[in-house]
Write a structure and sequence with these properties.
The complex is a heterodimer.
Chain A: E1 2-6, E2 9-11, E3 33-35, H1 37-53, E4 56-63, H2 68-77, E5 81-86, H3 93-107, E6 111-115, H4 126-134, E7 138-148, E8 151-158, E9 161-168, E10 171-175, H5 187-195, E11 198-201, E12 210-216, E13 225-228, H6 234-244
Helix pairs in contact in A: 2-5, 3-4
Chain B: E1 2-6, E2 9-10, E3 13-14, H1 16-32, E4 35-42, E5 59-64, H2 73-87, E6 91-95, H3 98-110, E7 114-119, E8 121-125, E9 128-135, E10 140-146, E11 151-155, E12 172-174, E13 186-193, E14 205-209, H4 219-229, E15 232-235, H5 237-241, E16 262-266, H6 272-278, E17 283-288, E18 301-304, H7 307-322
Helix pairs in contact in B: 2-3, 4-7
The chains are: A alpha/beta, B alpha/beta.
Bound molecules: flavin-adenine dinucleotide (FAD) and adenosine monophosphate.
Chain lengths: 248, 325
C-alpha cells in the first residue's frame, strides 16, 4: 500500500507570539520550528500501517526551504521519501491544498494522512480540501484507524462522543491525538536521514483567496484578584461569582 | 448579501450553534441588504425547520432522505454547495463544530471560495465581511477578508450569542438534490455517545483538574463540583498523558479551545499551551498552592491554597447558594 502524509512546519507550541513589523504575521526571529504536533501522529500512523502490511510512506510539505527541517525529521522517523513543494510565498489553505492535491494526483496513494489541524493558523481545512480536490472520501479528526482491504474504518471524535466512519479507499484522513503516539527517531534513523535526498517540486502559483488585513495580540487579561490564601476565602469567592461576575 | 446558513442537527434536534449561525448570518444580511436561507439536511427534519425563522432565517430549505439521517461528509457537502449555487449565494456560514469543520472545506472547494475557519466576530465594512479569528491557539487575533466572489465562514460555537427564539416561523421549501453512490463513499456507521456527559467544547461552565490533584481518584471532587454547577469536567494535558482522564476532556493547544462563561482551573499550573486553549473564557477562577503559578496571571479570581481543602468547601458553599443540599 502506498501512504502519503502531509506535514506542516510551524512554531513550536511553547512560542511566545510577538507581532511582526508588517502587522500581519508573527515575528519569526528566535522562534523554534517543529513538525506540527498532529502531523507527527499522522506520520506515526502511516509508519505503523507500513510496518504491519508493507508499503511505502511519502512525506510531503509545501513551503520554503526551512520546511526541509521537518521533512528531514520525518525521514529520521522512518518515512521512505520526502518531497518539498517549494514556494517561498505564504499560501492560504486553499493554495496549500491545491499544491498538495496536484502532486498527490500523480502519486495516487491508497491512504493520504494529515494532521487534524496545523497549530499555526488552526484552520483544520487543508486535508479535507485536498480530499475534495481529488474527489476522494474522507474522515476527519480520527483517533484510530483500521484498514481492511479496500475500506477503512475510522473512529472520529465529535462533540460528546465518537462517530465510526466507513471510508472506501483511496481515502483521506486527518489525525487527532489518540492511538498513534509518535516515536522518537532512532540514532540510526537520524544518520540515515542525513543522506536521503529531499525531492523538490515547483507547485503552480496560486493567488490567495483569503487576505490577512491585521494581526494583533489579544487584549491582555487584567491580572485578577487573589481572594484569599485558605479555605476562609471560599464564601467571598462564591459571592464574587454570584454578585460581581454573575456567572452562577 | 444572500447568505446560506447551515443549521446543523443531530437526532433531529438543532443544537445551539445552529441558531447562532442563523442569527449571525441575519446580522450580516441586515447590514448588507440581503437574505438568509437556512439549510437543514437529514431524515424527517422538516418539522423542526420553521423554528429557524425565530432566529432570523427568511426561508428554510430542507433536504430529506433516509440515507442522510447520519452525517456524510461528501453527501452533505454536495447538497450545501448545490443549494448555494442554485440560490446564487454570496456567502455560506456553518458552525465550527465537528460537523461544520468537516463540511466547510469541501463546500469551499466546490464553490471555489475562500474559507475562514473558526470566526469569533464578523463585521461589515463597505459591503464586505471582515472576519476575526484567533490564530496560534489564541495567542494572536487576525482580521481577514475573503477575496473570492463566494465566501465560506465557520463560526466558533458559544461566541455569537443567541437568546430564545422569537417564535416566528419561516417558510419551508423541500427540495431534492440528486446524489450518487460517489457521494456515499464515506458513511457514518455508528454514533457512540460518551455516557451522555457534557462536552467541554459545548459547556458554559468548565471545571478543570490538573496534576495538582495527585491522582485519578481525586477527580471525584472535580466531578462533583462540575455537577453542582451544571458544567463539564476538563483536564490538562499532564493528566491526560498520565492516563487519569480521556483526551476528549483536554483543554489547550493540542486539546480543545474553549470560551465558557466560567472556567475553574484546579491544580493547573497554566502552561502556555494550556492558556492558549482557555484564556478567552469570560471569567477564570484559579485554585493553586503556588502563588507564582502562571494561571493566576489570567485568572479573574484566585485562591492560593490546597485544592483538597478548598474544593470541598467550595462545593458545599455552592450547594448552599444554589439550594442543592
Ligand atoms: C506540543 C505540546 C502541546 C501541549 N498541549 C497542551 C494542551 O493542549 N493542554 C495542556 O494543558 N497542556 C499542554 N501541554 C503541556 C503543558 O506544557 C504542561 O505540561 C501541562 O499543561 C501541565 O499540566 P498541569 O498544569 O496539570 O501540571 P503541572 O504543570 O505539573 O502543574 C500542577 C499544578 O498543581 C499545583 N498543585 C500541586 N498540588 C496542589 C494542591 N494540593 N492544591 C492546589 N494546587 C496544587 C502546582 O502548584 C502546579 O501549579 C503541551 C505541551 C507540548 C510540548
Ligand atoms: N504547508 C503545508 N505543507 C504540507 N501539509 C500541510 C501544510 N499546511 C497544512 N498541511 C496539512 O494540513 C493539515 C491541516 O492544516 P490546516 O488546515 O492549516 O489546519 C496539517 O495538519 C497538515 O497535515
Amino acid at each position: 500500500m502506498k501512504f502519503a502524509v502531509c506535514i506542516n512546519h510551524v512554531p513550536d507550541t511553547a512560542t511566545k507570539v510577538a507581532i511582526g513589523s508588517d502587522g500581519k504575521s508573527i515575528e519569526k526571529t528566535g522562534v523554534n520550528y517543529v513538525i506540527s504536533p498532529y502531523d507527527e501522529y499522522a506520520i506515526e500512523a502511516c509508519l505503523r500501517f507500513k510496518e504491519k502490511q508493507t508499503g511505502e510512506v511519502v512525506a510531503i510539505s509545501c513551503g520554503g526551504d526551512v520546511h526541509k527541517e521537518s521533512l528531514r525529521k520525518a525521514l529520521a522517523m522512518g518515512v521512505d521519501k520526502a518531497v518539498l513543494l517549494k514556494d517561498d510565498a505564504t499560501r492560504d489553505s486553499f493554495g496549500v491544498a491545491r499544491a498538495l492535491a496536484d502532486y498527490l494526483r500523480d502519486l495516487s496513494p491508497d491512504v493520504i494522512m494529515f494532521g487534524k489541524q496545523s497549530v499555526d493558523y488552526d484552520d483544520s481545512a487543508v486535508g479535507i480540501m485536498v480530499a475534495e480536490m481529488l474527489g476522494l472520501p474522507s474522515a476527519a479528526v480520527v483517533v484510530k484507524l483500521e484498514l481492511n482491504g479496500g475500506t477503512a474504518t475510522a473512529d472520529r471524535e465529535i462533540e460528546g462522543g465518537h462517530e465510526v466512519v466507513e471510508v472506501q479507499l483511496p481515502g483521506v484522513f486527518t489525525i487527532q491525538k489518540g492511538a498513534y503516539e509518535p516515536r522518537y527517531p532512532s540514532l540510526k534513523g537520524i544518520m540515515a536521514a542525513k543522506n536521503k535526498p529531499i525531492e523538490e517540486r515547483q507547485p503552480a502559483p496560486m493567488e490567495a483567496k483569503v487576505e490577512t488585513m491585521t494581526m494583533v495580540k489579544p487584549p491582555a487579561k487584567q491580572a485578577g484578584k487573589i481572594v484569599g490564601t485558605d479555605v476562609g476565602a471560599v464564601p467571598e469567592l462564591v459571592r464574587l461569582l454570584h454578585e460581581e461576575a454573575k456567572v452562577i | 448579501m444572500k447568505i446560506i446558513a447551515f443549521a446543523e442537527q443531530r437526532d433531529n434536534k438543532f443544537k445551539k450553534p445552529a441558531f447562532e449561525v442563523v442569527k449571525a448570518a441575519r446580522t450580516v444580511a441586515d447590514q448588507t441588504g440581503g437574505e438568509v436561507i437556512a439549510v437543514v439536511v437529514g431524515s424527517g427534519v422538516r418539522s423542526i425547520a420553521p423554528e429557524l425563522g425565530g432566529y432570523g432565517a427568511h426561508k428554510v430549505i430542507v433536504v430529506e432522505d433516509a440515507h442522510l439521517a447520519l452525517y456524510s461528509s461528501t453527501a452533505y457537502a454536495t447538497i450545501v454547495a448545490a443549494i448555494a449555487k442554485k440560490e446564487g449565494a454570496d456567502a455560506v456560514m456553518v458552525p465550527a463544530t465537528a460537523m461544520g469543520k468537516d463540511l466547510a472545506p469541501r463546500v469551499a472547494v466546490k464553490l471555489d471560495a475562500g474559507l475562514v475557519s473558526d470566526c469569533i466576530a464578523l463585521k461589515v465594512e463597505q459591503g464586505d465581511i471582515l472576519a476575526s479569528r484567533p490564530v496560534y491557539a489564541g495567542k494572536a487575533l487576525t482580521e481577514v477578508r475573503v477575496k473570492s466572489p463566494v465566501k465560506v465562514f465557520s463560526l466558533r460555537p458559544n461566541v455569537f450569542t443567541v437568546g430564545a427564539g422569537s417564535g416566528e416561523t419561516a417558510p419551508v421549501e423541500l427540495i431534492d438534490v440528486p446524489l450518487t453512490e460517489q457521494d456515499f463513499r464515506s458513511i457514518v456507521k455508528e454514533v457512540k455517545q460518551s455516557s451522555a456527559k457534557l462536552d467541554v467544547a459545548e459547556a458554559d461552565i468548565i471545571v478543570t483538574g490538573g496534576r495538582g490533584l495527585k491522582g485519578p481518584e481525586n477527580f471525584a471532587m472535580i466531578e462533583e463540583l462540575a455537577a453542582v454547577l451544571g458544567g463539564a469536567v476538563g483536564a490538562s494535558r499532564a493528566v491526560v498523558d498520565a492516563g487519569w482522564r480521556k483526551h476528549d476532556e483536554q483543554v489547550g493547544q493540542t486539546g480543545k479551545t474553549v470560551s465558557p462563561s466560567l472556567y475553574i482551573a484546579i491544580g493547573v499550573s497554566g502552561a502556555i499551551q494550556h492558556l492558549a486553549g482557555m484564556s478567552s473564557s469570560k471569567y477564570i477562577v484559579a485554585i493553586n498552592r503556588d502563588k507564582d503559578a502562571p494561571i493566576f496571571q489570567v485568572a479573574s479570581y484566585g485562591i492560593v491554597g490546597d485544592a483538597f481543602e478548598i474544593v470541598p468547601a467550595l462545593t458545599a458553599e455552592l450547594k448552599k447558594l444554589l439550594g442543592k443540599q
